[in-house]
Amino acid sequence: MDDRLQPISGTPQVQPEMPLLTAQGVSKAFGGIQAVNNAEIHVPTGKIVGLIGPNGAGKTTLFNLLCNFIAPDSGRIIFDGKPIEKLPPHEIALQGMIRTFQVARVLSRMSVLENMLLAAPQQTGEKLHNTFFQAHIIRKEEKRLKEKAQVILESVGLAPKINDYAGALSGGQRKLLEMARGLMADPKLMLLDEPAAGVNPTLIQQICEHVREWNRDGITFLIIEHNMDVIMSLCDRVWVLAEGQNLAVGTPAEIQSNKEVLKAYLGQ
Amino acid sequence: MEIGYFVSLALFTTIYALFSLGLNLQWGYTGLINFGHIAFMAIGAYTTIALTLPGFIKEMPQRLVDQYPGLQNQEWLYGGLQFLGRVLPEQIPIFIAVLIGAGLAALLGLFIGTTTLRLREDYLSIVTIGVSEVIRLIAVNEEWLTRGPRGMFNYPLPLEKLEPNLLVKGGMIASLVVVLALIMWRLWQWLIRQPQGDQRPQASRLLFGLYLVCVAGVATCWWFSFSLTLTVTLPSFLQTIVLMILRLAMVVPLAICGVLLVYAVLPRPLQQWRVQALSTHISLLTVTMVMGLIMMFFGAHIMAINDYSFKAGLLWLLILTIAVIFWQMERWVTSPWGRVLTSIREDEEVAKALGKDVFRYKLQSFMLGGAIAGIAGSFYAWQLTFINPDGFIPLLTFQAWIIVVAGGAGNNVGTLLGAAIFWAYNEVTRFELPNILPLDDARLGALRVMVIGLMLIVLMMWRPQGILGKKEELTLGR
Ligand SMILES: Nc1ncnc2c1ncn2[C@@H]1O[C@H](COP(=O)(O)OP(=O)(O)OP(=O)(O)O)[C@@H](O)[C@H]1O
Ligand SMILES: [Mg+2]
Predict the structure, then answer these.
(1) pLDDT grade, residue B235 (50/70/90)?
(2) Cβ of A114 and B340 within 8 Å?
């Protein structure tokens, strides 16, 4: 099943229904554990796609494989028409695929604002030699980015915390910051790993609102979530993973009534 | 206090400060654990000296053959070496040699970095300490390259033959005054940007204690200026300048003291009009003291320049160098580039997830820190006027670590302060301890090191974040 060797057609065909992200035959074993086994996932452009499965099903591992944080044993991953399974993680992020972590990771000893500014891609001032001769351009860019960060932080309600250390935020606020930070990177696709875990119901509602709003602005989402309400209310399509393998795929309603899925969740 | 002694003490402090600034970039900002920092300094020192010692590089191929006679059997190699001996220059201009030394130190960083920076971070620490010992052992054994344990001496020193006339001296002094003015301006900027805390009623009592400190500072200033003017004679106009600076150093804290004093005796109702909070007063006083000390430092140096000696000239060069490097480093670390470095220190996975090429940034930081240590190495060699491998033992790496940790990691000013405190401690204990404790030299030496350890422990208990580190950062969760 080494379909990686097939040549990719030189001119990208522009098909309206062409998925933004396609992963096929993705596998990863940790020693004896086959964490992800020949899994497949498609994320159409502009949609919100859910990924569910019992604990230990391999969802987070699949995310790590998609972004190449962990190199897959095999499989083919195409993002925005280009194969990415060989690209280093930072290149993948620069292509427009931004992930969050299951346990939110913020840069503790940097301010909330700095966390946000860091995320902006392709900054002039990120190159050392530019700090010598491009100082005024950098200053202008910083100002623009600060305004942008301010707007995003206001939308998620973190604006009052803008100058606090990110490490001083609560768990839920960190989740918000992580998503806001992702937005600063102008992603095409955002991978959210359990955005609602450990978040109070009101805030969950808000997060859902934000996701819908950002989706309207053109960002595609792939969301891992155990909270079925979130999945039901947000997702256009849901993929189910169990023991590293695809179990089912369909609309949320279809998935909810699928016997296989219920069995996997209830443990027979 | 003798002026020559002041100059060599100042040289050591400043060289260590520069050396530690490199480590601060690597560890304080980027989180790279480098236990072999001395290797960079060794490369910088040996390269500079080897390239400038007349005839040294030209004879290097011949010495190589002398040390390894087997090479003569390898015809093409031997031919190549002889050819090299013919084309290599006698010596290289001293400032170009420094740049080459810094470049080679950076190359060492590139070499260590490409092999270990992709691995888990503890590998770097192990590899660096190993490499630093390897470099030192190469210096011991490869006599053709470094003259081994016999060491190198009689090498050219910068500004050595300079016999400055009044104009040149004036220029040197003017440049120092510019640096001094810039420092003062930066301190002032920092001071007025301090956040103003709440007002507290017990302020006046605390302030009283602070005047005492301030007055003590003035007294020290006075004593220094007095003893310094005794040791050198100056032309009248310079005398005026120096005395003016020293008096300023005394007047500034005095004036501030006065203002505070007036404020403190104000009746309660008037105190409500105060604009500054207590924390501002404290920073004000601290900064006053620091300003006074810095002015004293520059005042003494200006006198040393007037009484020109090679070391005074070297210190002048070093101060300009460190001023430029410090200024550039501050620009780097406050730029978006520096932000990426800090993010790598905090959590490199996040930096990666946001599209930053972590490896590249680590490499840049590591190489730059190495190059800075290389430049420090050149000055180290010039200051010592004799180098051999014993000058590059791992102990120096750990002294730089003490300086960076004590000053507050990720804070360039803290590093400078750490270096000053480290050397002040060193000297005070060297000269004062024998007067207090009836012990022989060896025991005193051991005691001093023990006390350093003890002080570090106390510091780490009292201020784990270092002197200028931010306290809030300690309580932050991951
Ligand atoms: N780095 C690793 N080394 C070894 N085993 C791992 C590693 N990462 C994950 N696993 C294993 O792979 C399996 C899938 O883990 P994964 O984190 O992907 O689950 P998940 O679907 O995200 O679960 P949850 O819903 O609890 O987050 C688990 O059995 C886990 O123990
Ligand atoms: Mg998971």
Answers:
(1) low
(2) no
Q: Which domain holds residue A226?
A: 1-106+182-268
Tracing tokens 């609309």 back to the chain, one arrives at A251
Query: Is A237 part of any domain?
Result: yes
Ligand 1 mean position, distance from CA A116 (Å): 29
Q: Which of A4-8, A227-231, B246-250 ranks highest by mean pLDDT? A: A227-231
CA separation for the pair B131, B373 (Å, rounded): 15
The mean pLDDT value for A61-70 works out to: 92
Predicted local confidence at residue A4, as pLDDT:
41
The secondary structure of B68-104 as a DSSP string is: -GGGGGSHHHHHHHHHHHHHS-S---HHHHHHHHHHH
Per the domain annotation, does A192 fall within a domain? yes
Q: What confidence score (pLDDT) does residue B379 get? A: 97
Domain boundaries, chain B: 164-307
- List the single residue in B339, B346, B368 with the smallest CB-CB distance to A109: B346
CA distance B281 to B276: 7
Q: Does B160 touch chain A (CB under 8 A)?
A: no
Report how far apart the first and last C-alpha atoms of chain B are (Å, whole number): 49
pLDDT, tens digit, 9 for 90 and up, residues B431-465: 777 777 777 778 888 888 888 888 888 888 877 77
How many domains, in total, are found in chain A? 1
**Contact residues for A217 (Cβ-Cβ < 8 A; gap 6+):** none
> Choosing among B118, B334, B339, B465, which should be mutated to test the A contact, i.e. which has the most A CBs within 10 A?
B339
Q: What is the mean pLDDT of residues A123-148?
A: 92
| In a domain? residue A98 | yes
Whole-Å CA distances, B380 to B329, B392, B403: 21, 10, 17
* Among B388, B323, B325, B315, residue whose Cα is nearest residue B158: B315
- Spatial CA neighbour of B434 closest among B447, B419, B421, B423: B447
pTM, full prediction:
0.86
What pLDDT, in 10s, does the model give residues B55-72? Answer: 888 888 888 988 988 888
Whether residues B478 and A167 touch (CB distance < 8 A) is answered with yes
Pocket flag, ligand 1, residue A35 (CB < 6 Å): yes
Percent of chain B with pLDDT over 70: 79
B343 contacts in chain A (CB < 8 Å): 107, 110, 118
Residues 1-40 of A with CB under 8 A from B: none
Tokens (6 digits) for B145: 């390259």
Nearest partner of B398 among B122, B43, B34, judged by Cα: B34
What number does the ligand 1 atom closest to the CA of A64 have? 18
A165 lies in a domain?
no
Give the domain CATH number at A61: 3.40.50.300
Which residues 6+ apart lie within 8 Å of B246 measured at CB? Answer: B221, B224, B225, B228, B295, B296, B299
ipTM score for this prediction: 0.88
CA distance B268 to B271: 5
How far is the centre of ligand 2, averaged over its atoms, from the C-alpha of B216 (Å)?
Answer: 62
